[in-house]
Amino acid sequence: MPYPPIEPYFTGRLKVSSIHELYYEISGNKEGTPVVFLHGGPGGGVDAADRTFFNPEKYKIILFDQRGSGKSTPSACLEENTTWDLVKDIETLRQELKIDKWHVFGGSWGSTLSLAYAQSHPDRVKSLVLRGIFTLRRSELQFFYQEGASHLFPEAWEEYLGPIPVEERADLILAYHAQLNSVDEETRIRAAKAWSKWEMATSKLYVDPAHIARAADDDFANAFARIENHYFVNTGFMRDGQLLEKQEIDKIRHIPTVVVQGRYDVVCPATTAYALKQVFPELEFHIVPDAGHSSREPGTAKLLTQATDKFAEL
């Protein structure tokens, strides 16, 4: 199971462009093997509990908020905010910390970014621990934001539809894009909360009111919804299915990789993790029979921690 909570021994800020400055923190063992945690969303930001997947006696644990997320500034900024900007930021942070190679851990959008980073810099990655695989294919976005998950959570779906006029519902991601970028703040915040609540309400096998309550926070919802939607409208700034292409996977076959996937994950359904396993059979693949999307569910958290324990000596 996850390790007890710890506090960072260092926090810093890193200027990565003329616009963006990132918050980052380091905890655990100063002399330990380095691991970088890539959070979800995009736009989700890091949380204190994210440190607990790693043995603090063995790992130098590095967390950071991606552009526009969490404590990074400016909040919710979409300018100069693409997958490849974030890949560049990970490298910039690695160089800033004078790390040669590190372990990479990411779930949901963090798994997307982990794959994109590893495929761009395969010589810098010691291992990959991935959860809730998401590759931003059009089919994945359609399932969760247009039709699919709607059949499983009809009452939450009705709330998600709320801000969007009936005549604009043929493309909900695009319709939300207009409202999330409205000049009217009330329109933006209402849309951001509805968008965020939809994901929070569907992320766990057993719906957690405390998790859903995060969507009520104006600042969190605004960054989370605006950045997610920005990436989805732009299909992740990648070719559809790029991360699963053979020539891309060939770049990372040598990297020890563990995938942990909740059987009842409706945010990032198991079909994508299975597609990754088909093209990357060398990876270690786990389906958690009693879990949804969240990394905090017991079976998922246990397997993620076991994976990082296994890689701690690499």
TrEMBL record:
One of its GO terms (molecular function) is aminopeptidase activity. It catalyses: Release of N-terminal proline from a peptide. GO terms for biological process: proteolysis. It is an enzyme of class 3 (hydrolase). It is found in: Cytoplasm. Transmembrane segments: none annotated. The active site is at residues 108, 265, 293. GO terms for cellular component: cytoplasm. Residues 34-294 form the AB hydrolase-1 domain. Keywords: Aminopeptidase, Cytoplasm, Hydrolase, Protease. InterPro entries: AB_hydrolase_1, AB_hydrolase_fold, Peptidase_S33, Pro_iminopeptidase. Its EC number is 3.4.11.5. Belongs to the peptidase S33 family. NCBIfam families: pro_imino_pep_1 (TIGR01249). This is Proline iminopeptidase. It comes from Coprinellus micaceus (Glistening ink-cap mushroom).
